[in-house]
Design brief:
The complex is a heterodimer of chains A (146) and B (100). By secondary structure, chain A is mainly α. Chain A has four helices and no strands. Chain A has one domain (2-145). Chain A is elongated and about 65 Å long. With 100 residues, chain B is mainly α. Chain B has one domain (5-99). In chain B, helix 1 runs parallel beside helix 3. Chain B is elongated and about 55 Å long. Classes of the chains: A mainly alpha (146), B mainly alpha (100). The A-B interface holds A 25-29, 37, 40-41, 43-45, 47-48, 50-52, 54-55, 57-59, 61-62, 64-66, 68-69, 81, 84-85, 88-89, 91-92, 95-96, 98-99, 102-103, 106 and B 5-6, 8-9, 11-12, 15-16, 18-19, 22-23, 25-26, 29-30, 32-33, 68, 72-78, 80-81, 83-85, 87-88, 90-92, 94-95, 97-99. Chain B: It is a multi-pass membrane protein. Chain B: Keywords: Membrane, Transmembrane, Transmembrane helix. Chain B: Residues 4-63 form the DUF202 domain. Chain B: Its main location: membrane. Chain B: The chain crosses the membrane at residues 46-62, 82-99.
Chain lengths: 146, 100
């Protein structure tokens, strides 16, 4: 994005950046008409990455729906429902992040800038790992209690 | 096909198809609550909205697949955020289906 170029005047450009985010999602080619159209293969690769993230999000949503419907009631009250809602939330966040990352990558490619890096995959991995550890603990507690 | 180096367009078309199939899985999972509790109006509304979203996703993927057949293939624009927003709507409506 423009950040590297506008570091000195961060505060004034930040608001503009935020306004442009939505427009950028819907029309990365037009906002603003800078740079050059990259090789279509790069754009298609970016699109496939987006689709892979959307599938990840859809899988999380499916997991949430399956949790709520097929798990027996868990030892802790509302744990099942909480798990389902957490998975649905995670799926929604993944979908939003996917389109944002797609738009920023598309823009960076037009401008010939460095592709945007992201901590999101690491954060998602940690959240999923934490969730499974918590579940393992509840299952163990349940087993010991019986 | 010499016009599609690395089969980029082909792979993208298949990726759209996979994603539409994943959406189908979510839509089918969301269908069950309304079958087990057919008297709940709220569940009916949320479930039918999910079905509409699913149909929209399949339609978008189909249209996009056609757009990929041109030479050179045109990059995606509004199809991408539309797909993401429908996925987000799935999450919200799925939550409603569960919580209601």
């Amino acid at each position: 994005m423009m950040k590297s170029a506008s570091c000195g005047i961060t505060f004034s450009t930040r608001a503009v950046d935020n306004q442009q985010v939505l427009r950028q999602w819907f029309d990365p080619e037009k906002t603003p008409t800078v740079g050059r159209t990259p090789d279509y293969r790069f754009s298609l690769a970016n699109e496939r990455t987006f689709l892979a993230w959307i599938r990840t999000g859809l899988a999380l949503i499916a997991g949430g729906l399956a949790c709520a419907q097929f798990l027996p009631p868990l030892p802790i009250t509302f744990l099942r429902e909480g798990l389902a809602i957490a998975l649905l939330l995670l799926g929604g966040v993944v979908a939003l992040r996917a389109v944002d990352h797609w738009a920023r990558t598309e823009r960076a490619m037009r401008l010939g800038e460095e592709l945007p890096g992201s901590k999101f995959p690491a954060i998602l991995a940690l959240v999923v790992a934490l969730g499974s550890v918590l579940l393992i603990i509840t299952v163990l507690i349940n087993a010991v209690r019986e | 096909m010499s016009g599609d180096p690395g089969a980029a367009a082909e792979r993208t078309r298949l990726a759209w198809r996979r994603t539409a199939l994943s959406a189908a899985a979510v839509a089918l999972l969301a269908l069950r609550p309304v079958v087990t509790d057919p008297t709940h109006v709220g569940k009916w509304i949320a479930t039918s909205l999910i079905m509409v979203g699913w149909a929209a996703m399949v339609g978008i993927a189909y249209r996009r697949a056609k757009g990929l057949t041109s030479q050179p293939p045109r990059p995606a624009r509004r199809t991408v955020p539309a797909f993401a927003l429908i996925a987000l709507a799935f999450a919200v409506l799925g939550g409603l289906v569960i919580a209601l």
